[in-house]
Specification:
The protein has 302 residues and is of the alpha/beta class. 40% of the residues lie in helices and 23% in strands. It has three domains: 84 residues, Orthogonal Bundle (Arc Repressor Mutant, subunit A), CATH 1.10.10.10; 99 residues, Periplasmic binding protein-like II (D-Maltodextrin-Binding Protein, domain 2, 3-Layer(aba) Sandwich); 96 residues, 3-Layer(aba) Sandwich (D-Maltodextrin-Binding Protein, domain 2). It contains nine helices and 14 strands. It has a five-stranded mixed β-sheet, sandwiched between helices. Strands 11-7-12 form a three-stranded antiparallel β-sheet. Strands 1-2 form a two-stranded antiparallel ribbon. α7 links the parallel β9 and β10. α1 crosses α4, α2 crosses α3 and α5 crosses α9. It comes from Paraburkholderia sediminicola.
């Protein structure tokens, strides 16, 4: 059904005059008359009773008028929502993330995104790097925040944040009073780390840096979540290394200390499918880049 014909009919039904309806629709009277006639032929019954000096609705026309209004209203709403979806104003966005971003950039990213695009429904998926890559490829998530390196040619990525790992030691530990440490000074310390089966980028960097200092970390406890590792540090069970932005969120009885000569940075990237048709991905990526840049300018805690 041609929506233009419905609009012309509604104008005539409300004005009860073809000339005034034509003025209202900014067309010639013959165009209005022709389109209403075509609508009546399409429906198979008369909507208007016409005479030389009068126009009035037929009984079917009286019944059809509110339905036509509702149909036009819903059509207008559908077009408005489709346009909003096309520019990312409304819609859905599925976001994957590694757990250390919960301590840093993810909360302010989500806050700023919701303030700017409150009608985009967000779903969050805590996933490790390899799981995120697969989830992007299978469209389970639209965008992921994960450690580098880049996931490869099939996906696009952009750097969000990069910085060294820093030591997390229990409060009251002899090293806790130091302003900086060398990685070699941790050689005799018990470590709490991610399990090797997770293929954690943080673990890769820790093991490589310890090896460059001539030792392998003595692992006494393992945990799959960063907050669990820090709880173990707080309990005095060992030390660990964390991204520097984690120090911005205070953990009870944990002291953060920068490391000298730790050259391998830990990098966070945003990754997405370049063939995505979800405009919210672009909006989220812009917010993420902006927030991550601001975060790195803030001072670290102890």
């Amino acid at each position: 059904m041609d929506l233009r014909r419905l609009r012309y009919f509604m104008a005539v039904a409300e004005e009860l005059h073809f000339g005034r309806a034509a003025q209202r629709m900014h067309v010639v009277q013959s165009a209005v008359s022709h389109q209403v006639k075509l609508l009546e032929e399409e429906l198979g019954f008369s909507l208007l009773e016409r005479s030389r000096h009068n126009v009035r609705l037929t009984v079917p026309g009286e019944i059809f008028l509110p339905e036509a209004r509702d149909l036009l209203r819903r059509a207008d709403e559908a077009m408005r929502r489709a346009r909003a979806s096309a520019d990312g104003t409304v819609g859905r966005l599925a976001i994957g993330f590694v757990d250390n971003v919960l301590w840093s950039i993810l909360p302010p990213i989500l806050r700023d995104f919701r303030q700017r695009w409150p009608q985009v429904e967000l779903t969050l998926h805590p996933l490790d790097r390899s799981a995120q890559i697969e989830a992007i490829r299978t469209s389970v998530i639209d965008i992921g925040i994960m450690p580098s390196p880049s996931p490869g040619h099939a996906l696009k990525s952009a750097e969000l944040a990069a910085g060294p790992l820093i030591a997390a030691v229990p409060q009251g530990h002899p090293l806790a009073v130091r302003s900086t440490l060398s990685i070699a000074e941790l050689a005799s310390e018990p470590f709490v780390l991610f399990p090797r089966r997770m293929n954690s980028r943080i673990l890769e960097i820790i093991v490589a840096c310890c090896a460059s200092a001539g030792f392998a970390p003595r692992i006494v406890e393992e945990a799959e979540q960063l907050h669990t590792l820090l709880a173990l540090v707080s309990a005095g069970l060992g030390v660990t290394l964390v991204p520097q932005w984690v120090a911005r969120v205070q953990q009870h009885d944990v002291i953060y200390i920068p490391l000298d000569e730790l050259l391998t940075p830990y990098e966070l990237i945003a990754a997405w499918n370049p063939n995505t048709d979800n405009p919210a991905v672009v909006n989220f990526r812009e917010i993420a880049t902006e927030v991550a840049g601001q975060l790195l300018l803030q001072p670290l805690g102890r």
